[in-house]
Request: fold
Amino acid sequence: MNQTAGPKVVAIGGGNGLSTMLRGLKSRVSDLTAVVTVADDGGGSGVLRQDLNMPPPGDIRNCMEALASAEGVMGELLSYRFPEGGLAGQAFGNLLLAALNGISASFDQAVARMSEVLAISGRVLPVTNANVQLEAEFENDARVLGESRICDFKKTQDCRIRRVRLLPGGAPALPDVVEAIRRADLILLGPGSLYTSVIPNLLVDGVDRAIAQSEALKVYVCNIMTQDGETEEMTAADHVLALMEHGLEGLDVCLCNSAAVPPPLLERYRAEDARPTVVDTPRLQALGVAVVEAPLTSPTAQYARHDPERLARAVLELYRQRGHTKVF
Reply:
């Protein structure tokens, strides 16, 4: 499909989920902004963050790959990881963004300059320039600091996450992030790790308020599967309730997958204590959120993940049906 004017879309999240969303939307929407979490502290991003005192580049790089005009070659280059030596495991795209950060006045300016170099479709914005860390508090009152430590720590505690917070608190959202949300016609949250990719964006000062004040259609794209070490046994309504407890107001729709997950994939996920997310429609409706189900899984992928094309079609059809009037 050729790119058309369409709605002004803001997609909020991080990790593979956000990049999947962007891949499907980039040829369909001419005004597309990705708002990306900067709470990651693991892997190559964590090393650069610690060594260079900069926000983590990994999720930003993933979004750049998804939006790059020459996605095949450029994606391969940006995601190339050095196999040995002092750079072993580090992605080239992370290093490129780190270099641009070194010659730029701020991290968001480095991201903007990298966007120009790659001639990406749309715009990628770090949610904040602040160097923040993510802390999780569990239902047994235990706490752990560091996004990369939450999964394993949760398994040892064997209880649900009660709340996550950013430290230091009060990190301000980029003005461009707030402006993009306020002018949006369609705001998308997810898919992706609930507590470590989606919610951290809501904790940045100004983001939840901008979403609440926006007249946009607001859609949460629910994960197809629960996530080991994060959302075991959580239903779709549990996901939405967690978003609300962390400041989200005015959510209109929860978009859920209706396609069956193939049995071989189910067995593989079951070994990781992950299962298809239960869509508990009555509870979602009691929260004031409409439920829309559509076949969203990739028919060929080796994982139970969203298909970029199916997901893009579904969210834009939602907007076509409901965005102008928001009547459900």
